Amino acid sequence: MLGAYIPLAAKLGRLAMELAAGHVEELRLTYFGALAQYDTRLLTVAALNGAFQGRSDQPVNYVNAPMIAAERGVEVREERSQCRPRLHEPRASPRRSPTASRSGWPARPWATTTVSGS
């Protein structure tokens, strides 16, 4: 069941990190619907793997991705909901680190990745 979502989770992790310009304090993964019934730790690790690919001095894999997140002070949170997400609500909210305000924007927290299953 989860196999089809692994590449998606990795891409969403990479996208979240790109949007945050690599400066993330928290990575929150929210699983909705039937997908929330499963053990989604593999998807969370896939998202971390995608997030840190090319952003670490060491090769990133499914084993060390959580350790890399911890070393960088990135809080990883998994959330589940049996309800389907309301599409009119934003699923990604800024959560950038204070050092990431290169654009002149106020520093704000970044990165929610949402994966939904039917």
What does the model show?
With 118 residues, the protein is α/β, with parallel strands linked by helices. The chain has one domain: 60s Ribosomal Protein L30, Chain: A. The protein is 28% helix and 16% strand. It has three helices and three strands. It has a three-stranded parallel sheet with strand order 2-1-3. The longest helix has 14 residues. The chain is globular and about 40 Å long. The C terminus is likely disordered.
Helix content: 25-40%
Report how far the terminal alpha carbons are from each other. 11 Å
CATH topology, by name, is 60s Ribosomal Protein L30, Chain: A
Shape: globular
User: Residue ranges: pLDDT <50 for 5 or more in a row?
Assistant: 88-94, 99-112, 114-118
Write the topology of this structure:
Blueprint lengths: L5 H14 L6 E7 L8 H12 L12 H7 L3 E7 L30 E5 L2
Parallel strand pairs: 1-2, 1-3
Helix pairs in contact: 1-2, 2-3
What labels would you give this structure?
disordered C terminus, 60s Ribosomal Protein L30, Chain: A, 28% helix, alpha/beta
Task: Sum this structure up briefly.
This protein has 118 residues and is an alpha/beta fold. The chain has helices spanning 6-19, 41-52, 65-71; strands spanning 26-32, 75-81, 112-116.
